[in-house]
Amino acid sequence: MSDATLHATSQNPDDFAVQVSDQIESFLVAVTEVARGDEPGSTVPFLLLEISQLLLAGGRLGAHEDILPDERYEPDLGPEPDVDELRENLARLLEPVDVYSEVFDPYEPRKAPVPARLSDDIAGIITDLRHGMAHYRSGRTAEALWWWQFSYFSNWGPTASAVLRALQSVLIHVRLNQPLEELDGLDTDQGVGDETLEIEAGRVMAEEIGAPLGMRQGK
Questions:
Q1: Long-range contacts made by residues 141-147, C-beta under 8 angstroms, separation at least 24?
Q2: d(CA 189, CA 139)
Q3: What is the largest CA-CA distance in the chain?
Q4: Dihedral (C-alpha) 117, 119, 125, 127: value to the nearest 10 degrees?
Q5: pTM of the model
Q6: Which among 93, 99, 122, 175 counts the fewest CB atoms within 10 Å?
Q7: Is the confidence at residue 197, as pLDDT, over 90?
């Protein structure tokens, strides 16, 4: 299935596969545009909206009965498209709130939160979704749905949920005028305290995120 026929009028818009693919394609296009950086002050609100809408598609996939591919072995799609530029652009736009704490399994006791990066996680979600979209555009609808459902459970679903919570937290701090009290230098490759990072995070959140949203600056 080519790009030209992806949304052909012969397709039933009520079809489950069409609806899910439309939601996923919309996410891919929107996040790619956000990563261009044309509106840096709206990065967090836009990503919150797009992740929320993507999780609706994920919820539908999760609630659906198990989807089986037509072929036993997955056809070779060739090399995966590079997402390094998108990841780097998002890291620049989200700095210094890019790093956040994540709990992998809330039902597994005594698991400490681990540091993660919004930019890495979103790039990983993009990779998973593009993989399924390649099948869909080649006419392998069952394979695409199987991949999207499987990777929703195994990777991009939990990741998107964690990203959503982090983005919500950023906006909550801004909207309720609650500066981050402590970051402890949270990083994915070090765990030492960094007071400068805390101060810078609060400044960027207020100036680059709060101002475009029309939020008053704290005195």
A1: 141/1, 141/17, 142/67, 142/68, 142/69, 142/70, 143/69, 143/70, 143/71, 143/74, 143/75, 144/17, 144/21, 145/16, 145/17, 145/20, 145/61, 145/67, 146/67, 146/68, 146/69, 147/69, 147/74
A2: 42
A3: 63
A4: -120
A5: 0.76
A6: 175
A7: no
Per-residue confidence band for 42, with pLDDT thresholds at 50, 70 and 90: very high
Query: Quick check: 119 pLDDT over 70?
Result: yes
Q: pLDDT tens for residues 4-27?
A: 334 443 556 569 999 999 999 999
Cβ-contact 31, 47 below 8 angstroms? yes
Q: What is the residue-averaged pLDDT of the chain? A: 80
Identify which of 215, 178, 183 has the alpha carbon closest to the alpha carbon of residue 200: 183
Report d(CA 83, CA 67) in Å as an integer.
28
What is the predicted pLDDT for the residue at 53? 97
What is the pLDDT at residue 103? 78
How far apart are the C-alpha atoms of 19 and 57, rounded to whole Å? Answer: 8
Q: Which of 157, 138, 152, 21 is nearest to 77 (CA)?
A: 138
Strand partners, 102: 114
Contact 57, 64 (CB under 8 A): no
